[in-house]
Amino acid sequence: MDRQRYHDTLERCSLVKDLELLPYGDLTEIGERGVNLSGGQKQRIQLARALYQNADIYLLDDPFSAVDAQTATSLFNDYIMGALSGKTVLLVTHQVDFLPAFDSVMLMSDGEILQAAPYHQLLSSSQEFLDLVNAHKETAGSERHAEVDAPQRQGSSVREIKKSYVEGQIKTSQGDQLIKQEEKEVGDTGFTPYLQYLNQNKGFLYFSLAVICHVLFVICQITQNSWMAANVDDPHVSTLRLIAVYLCIGVTSTLFLLFRSILTVVLGLQSSKSLFSQLLNSLFRAPMSFYDSTPLGRILSRVTSDLSIVDLDVPFTLILAVGATTNVYSNLGVLAVVTWQVLFVSIPMVYLAIRLQN
């Protein structure tokens, strides 16, 4: 950033005093849609952004509409006639006092250009333009008396405003910006988030049924393998009976697996509905200060991408984690029954894995 051009831009746009009144100067967060800025400040900030870009052509649509007469005069002299003196400027304005300084004036009515000429030539050739200038002079004449003493009172007014602002800041905290920092947990949060998730709308019930179905599925898998291993060489068991029992156990385990998946989907739907309803109630009942201090993008992120993770990822990840743990310990149990010496290797490995995860 060009610091010299930056400070010159602030001077040209009459923003120096405004920045002095802000608690953090040009580092002050202005919030969504500039909630803590006046209309004139917003307009001058837009003018400053345009000036800093150093373009060749500037299109200005009534840039003095939201500022007082004195500030408008300062902007015209310093900004348009000074900073933009070497640029091409197309200005739309109702301030006819500034028109004599322009090379060409276009008089418009109902979206059409009636005439285009220098100010004095247009004044002598167009009755409509003459009536417009005279009407403006008559309207502005009644306000001249109020503007005479304005320059004398400006310095004291600014000091009074700044003094009252500083006194107000003493009563309030100076350590916070308008936009609040996003709160989020860091590190291992334990089982608290999962318990909160399962507490939503009979979540524990669906989760328990899904775990039971998975345990039954594992039991069926072990039973199926045990049946085949124990009876494949038994002459008293026919081949038809061997295959039929094996298939029945397999179908039963598949049904338990299907029920587990259905219960997982129901768990996700019910918990998501409950969380989404609570989120909407919180947003609808939040005070307006919450929306001033919370960016709109952060709120949209919560109700879209974050809620999508809660809908799809959390229930399936939770069930798969429980299922994987059940599979590991069931396999270790089978190995311990068949070959108990494997415990000398498996138990230290399980302990080491748990330590590494922590």
Topology diagram in text:
Layout: H1 3-12, H2 16-21, H3 39-53, E1 57-61, H4 69-83, E2 88-92, E3 105-109, E4 112-117, H5 119-125, H6 127-141, H7 144-148, H8 150-171, H9 192-198, H10 203-231, H11 239-284, H12 288-293, H13 296-338, H14 343-357
Parallel strand pairs: 1-2
Antiparallel strand pairs: 3-4
How would you explain this protein's 3D organization?
Helix content is 67%, strand content 6%. By secondary structure, it is mainly alpha-helical. The protein folds into 2 domains: 3-168, Rossmann fold, CATH 3.40.50; 192-326, ABC transporter transmembrane region fold (Up-down Bundle), CATH 1.20.1560. Strands 1-2 form a two-stranded parallel sheet. The protein has a two-stranded antiparallel sheet with strand order 3-4. Strand 3 (105-109) and strand 4 (112-117) form a beta hairpin. Helix 5 (119-125) crosses helix 6 (127-141) and helix 10 (203-231) runs antiparallel to helix 11. The longest helix has 46 residues, at 239-284. The radius of gyration is 38 Å and the shape is elongated. 13% of the residues are buried.
Unreliable stretches: 142-175
Which percent range describes the beta-strand content? 5-15%
Whole-Å distance between the termini?
A: 46 Å
Whole-number tally of structural domains: 2
Let me know the average pLDDT. Answer: 80
CATH superfamily of the largest domain: P-loop containing nucleotide triphosphate hydrolases
> How many helix segments?
14
The gyration radius over C-alpha positions equals: 38 Å
Assigned CATH class of the largest domain: Alpha Beta
CATH architecture label of the largest domain: 3-Layer(aba) Sandwich
String of helices and strands = HHHEHEEEHHHHHHHHHH
What name does the CATH topology of the largest domain carry?
Answer: Rossmann fold
Number of strands: 4
Within the largest sheet, what's the order of strands? Answer: 1-2
The secondary structure category is mainly alpha
Largest sheet: 2 strands, parallel
Shape: elongated
* Residue share in helix: 55-70%
Protein name: ABC transmembrane type-1 domain-containing protein
InterPro entries: ABC1_TM_dom, ABC1_TM_sf, ABC_transporter-like_ATP-bd, ABC_transporter_C-like, P-loop_NTPase
Domain ABC transmembrane type-1: 209-358
Organism: Salix viminalis (Common osier)
